[in-house]
Amino acid sequence: MAKSRLIGDYPVIGIRPTIDGRRGVLKVRESLEDQTMNMAKSAAKLFEENIRYSNGEPVKVVIADTTIGRVAESAACADKFRKEGVDITLTVTPCWCYGAETMDMDPNTIKAVWGFNGTERPGAVYLASVLATHAQKGLPAFGIYGHDVQEADDTSIPADVEEKLLRFGRAAVACATMRGKSYLQIGSVTMGIGGSIINTDFFEDYLGMRVESVDEVEIIRRMTEGIYDEEEYQKALAWTKEKCIEGFDKNPEELQKTRDQKDSEWEFVVKMMCIIKDLMNGNDKLPAGCEEEMVGHNAIVAGFQGQRQWTDFYPNCDYPEALLNTSFDWNGAREPYVLGTENDTLNATSMLFMKLLTNRAQIFADVRTYWSPEAVKKATGYDLEGVAKEAGGFIHLINSGAACLDACGEAKDENGNGVMKPWYEVTEEDQDAIMKATTWNYADLGYFRGGGFSSRFETKVEMPATMIRLNIVKGLGPVLQIAEGWTVGLPAEVSDKLWKRTDYTWPCTWFAPRTTGEGAFKTAYDVMNNWGANHGAISYGHIGADLITMASMLRIPVCMHNVPEEKIFRPAAWNAFGMDKEGADYRACANFGPQFKK
Fold first, then answer.
1. Tens-level pLDDT at each residue, the chain (598 residues)
2. Per annotation, catalytic residue among 87, 249, 342, 503
3. So where does Mn(2+) get bound (predicted)?
4. What pairs with residue 471 in β-bridges?
5. How far is CA 253 from CA 107, 226, 239, 413, 503, in A?
6. Which helix (H) or strand (E) is 135 found in, with range?
7. Do 83 and 62 meet the contact criterion of CB atoms below 8 Å apart?
8. Cα–Cα distance between 581 and 565 in angstroms, integer?
9. Is 186 in contact with 276 (CB distance < 8 Å)?
10. Nearest to residue 142, comparing CAs of 572, 463, 450?
11. CB atoms within 10 A of CB 35
12. DSSP helix/strand/coil, 16
């Protein structure tokens, strides 16, 4: 689909068909060869047809050259997988096997085992045995076992098995894609926000990433010395003038800038976006003599400090943040970047998790205001309906800058419903509709003394959405919060009255979480009241179950979620840490610890 912007190959899934090693007159092994290898082929086909890397290409899957019945074949498989770059393994079998001899012993691979539910051979017995051995050796693995008995010659994958295989595959590919990449912070701490105080141990120990830092003055140096791609800049500027609709200026008339000053600031922010891209991933088209700058920082995610040292003097970064996080630009549809506003490293990383799971653009927002039904009625005279009524209100998600433009919901599916698509499905019609629904309003000079332009749109349609936040607690480590729900479409006059009570020039999304009537999800108020920070990352779709699986792979406990219990899928060893699933998650994560801790 598209060339990867990052150095390093994408992770590969390796499938290990294990088999009963006994030969002899009964030909036990020989009778199982076809069935075992067919399981591997079926799983490979499922992965290849349903999982894509972030650049849009189908995931690469390799299968061991032979079935694995004894340790020599395990070693041959491991050797092949090392050469193929395998980071994720799925062991499959319809029968009994010698567990400790046939299991994946690599401590750095993400592991699952699928045991066929059949009656002819004890696949379930092997599954239970080898999962116990994984736990005993401190190598957690996910166990997959179908609900219903299948015939021995049935090569189909039951729906419940398929769901778990794909959940495992999506989460594992997302986790492994981050390894060896960088978080690039441009600047440092923003207005005392804890999330922008970067925790290098977290990135290194839990994600296998490195942290890179450059001062914001590097952007000015590159502008001043002409260290950018002039051809791309001119193309970007022409596209911006054609496609970006300038909105109203809310500042007092005597403070408003002249047309020439605003045009100059447009040139500044477009050039700024080009330079941030180059900082993240390099650019071999930079001028001769800039070979050092050409290489970039191999950043899969970045953050920009901005406030206040930058924004008190220079135009803000809202244009680069919004467009980089969007699924297209002047070159058409392309893989979204992840650039967090205010260098909130934890919210930007939350966005990264969901981008890698969905290949969709992500929303960065303040979790700003809870509106109760009574408060809405008092302010507007409107009685809440639908999901907002069911949730006992809704939450206003709004912040300047980093919300992707896709969040306006103007892209349409085949039935005309507003959606946020995987980037490789975004059409030119979608792009035009999104740009027409967005205005670029001159910056609020009370916030941004240096000027700039903020994207402005409203999410007017109801879409399934998941809001998450990664937090770090001293003595505990990282924890993840997950709230599935829906964006809320309000009548225009109601939305306007509520929106105007805060900043009317910023992107606006109303969000109603799915409530349960108890605990942190009793009502939308309780979700807001239990949220762990001022920011949230929001993705299209209900992907909480995938996030729980992904968090367990990273050894990050989930402290708050509203995912149905039957959808929760964690490594089998988690069952040994108690009958309360969330407490067991904490204990298991603490016991096994981060995979890359030195």
1. 578 899 999 999 999 999 998 998 888 999 999 999 999 999 999 999 999 999 999 999 999 999 999 999 999 999 999 999 999 999 999 999 999 999 999 999 999 999 988 877 777 889 999 999 999 999 999 999 999 888 878 878 999 999 999 999 999 999 999 999 999 999 999 999 999 999 999 999 999 999 999 999 999 999 999 999 999 999 999 999 999 999 999 999 999 999 999 999 999 999 999 999 999 999 999 999 999 999 999 999 999 999 999 999 999 999 999 999 999 999 999 999 999 999 999 999 999 999 999 999 999 999 999 999 999 999 999 999 999 999 999 999 999 878 999 999 999 999 999 999 999 999 999 999 999 999 999 999 999 999 999 999 999 999 999 999 999 999 999 999 999 999 999 999 999 999 999 999 999 999 999 999 999 999 999 999 999 999 999 999 999 999 999 999 999 999 999 999 999 999 999 999 999 999 999 999 999 999 998 7
2. 342
3. 342, 366, 535
4. 479
5. 64, 34, 28, 42, 18
6. helix 123-136
7. no
8. 9
9. yes
10. 572
11. 23
12. strand
What is the identity of the amino acid at 496? D
What residue numbers does the annotated binding site for Mn(2+) cover?
342, 366, 535
Radius of gyration from C-alpha coordinates of the chain: 25
- 342 is an active site residue: yes
DSSP-H helix ranges across 195-258: 200-207, 217-225, 230-243
DSSP 529-582: HH-SSSEEEEEES--HHHHHHHHHHHT--EEE----GGG----GGGGGG-SSHH
Which two three-digit tokens encode residue 347? 């919210």
Known binding-site residues equal 342, 366, 535
CA 127 – CA 99 distance, rounded (Å): 9
Q: Where are the beta strands (DSSP E) in 327-476?
A: 328-329, 332-333, 339-341, 363-371, 394-398, 411-412, 418-419, 439-442, 453-456, 464-473
For residue 547, give both structure tokens.
């996030």
Within a 10 A sphere around the Cβ of 178, how many other Cβ atoms? 22
Token duo for residue 332: 């058409």
* 265 has catalytic annotation: no
